[in-house]
Every structure is written in C-alpha cells, then in structure tokens.
C-alpha cells in the first residue's frame, strides 16, 4: 500500500489547494475527523491561509486517504496506522505474504525492488521539501 494506490482510488481534482470541505467530500469523512487526524498524525499539516482556514495540498489529501484506508478498511489502530505510515515513509515495505508476487521471491529481485523503492521515496521527500521551501520563500 502506498500513495499511488490511494490516488487510484480517489477522484481528486487537479488543483493546488483544497479546503477542509472539499477534502471532506473527496474522502467521504466529516471535517471533525480530519481535524482530529491532524492532531494524531504529525505528517498531516495543512497550510493556513491569511484567514486561518486550512489549505490542503494534493499530498495531504493522499496521506489522509492512506490514513482512512488503514483505519477503516484495514482495521488498524491509531498507533498501528502511525507505525505503518512511518514504515511507508521511511522506505520499509510492510506487506502480507499473500501480497508478494512470485517473481519477488528471488533474493536479487527483492534487493533491486527495495533499493528502487528507497530511492524513489528519497526523491519524493526531497521534492516535498523543495516545494515547502519555495512556498515559504514566496510568502
């Protein structure tokens, strides 16, 4: 499970920022649930506009979609979901045995796959950091 999987399941419009009402509608959740998850999951930190209203980025919506998947569909506890998100963002792969394709059972395939995922996650984190720096610079 990763953010690409979540994106495929959600119908997210192509725009830069989303209000809490829009995110609530996309994820089919109450706004109060989104506000609660902000307190529980440090990774969810929407920006605020000049009026103090939340402005969620596309990545925020995807992370919230992941939280929803973990809590509602996979029946994780809050702590379990936090750990799973930590595993995903640190590049650790946490899949069930029946989710591993047969071709990945070869040690070389596993090593290449894990390295590729780790590198991709590092690139994503670098791009996200760059975007945050640009947003701070233009404010």
Descriptive notes:
This protein has 139 residues and is mainly alpha-helical. The protein folds into two domains: 93 residues, Multidrug-efflux Transporter Regulator, Chain: A, Domain 2; 45 residues. Helix content is 61%, strand content 6%. The chain has a three-stranded antiparallel β-sheet with strand order 1-3-2. The protein is globular and about 40 Å long. The termini are far apart.
Secondary-structure blueprint of this entry?
Elements: H1 3-9, E1 17-18, H2 20-27, H3 31-40, E2 47-48, E3 54-57, H4 58-73, H5 78-89, H6 107-138
Antiparallel strand pairs: 1-3, 2-3
Helix pairs in contact: 1-4, 4-5
Provide the CATH top-level class of the largest domain.
Answer: Mainly Alpha
Got a strand count?
Answer: 3
Q: Order of strands across the biggest sheet? A: 1-3-2
Instruction: Flag low-confidence runs.
Output: 95-109
The gyration radius over C-alpha positions equals 16 Å
Q: Which second-level CATH architecture of the largest domain applies?
A: Orthogonal Bundle
Main structural class:
mainly alpha
Strand content: 5-15%
Q: How would a textbook summarize the main sheet?
A: 3 strands, antiparallel
At the fold tier of CATH, the topology name of the largest domain is Multidrug-efflux Transporter Regulator, Chain: A, Domain 2
- The separation of the N and C termini measures 35 Å
Order of helices and strands: HEHHEEHHH
The dominant shape is globular
Count of structural domains: 2
Number of helices: 6
Mean pLDDT, to the nearest integer, reads 81
What is the oligomer described by this structure? single chain
- Helix residue percentage: 55-70%
């Amino acid at each position: 499970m990763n953010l690409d999987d979540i994106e495929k399941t959600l119908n997210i419009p192509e725009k830069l920022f989303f209000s809490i009402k829009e995110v609530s509608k996309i994820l089919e959740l109450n706004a109060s649930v989104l506000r609660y998850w902000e307190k529980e999951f440090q990774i969810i930190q929407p920006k605020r506009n000049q009026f103090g209203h939340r402005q969620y980025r596309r990545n925020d919506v995807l992370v919230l979609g992941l939280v929803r998947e973990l809590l509602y569909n996979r029946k994780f506890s809050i702590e379990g979901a936090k750990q799973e998100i930590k595993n995903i963002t640190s590049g650790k792969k946490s899949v069930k045995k029946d989710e591993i394709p047969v071709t990945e059972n070869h040690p070389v395939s596993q090593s290449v796959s894990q390295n590729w995922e780790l590198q991709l996650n590092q690139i994503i984190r670098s791009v996200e950091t760059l975007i945050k720096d640009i947003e701070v610079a233009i404010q």
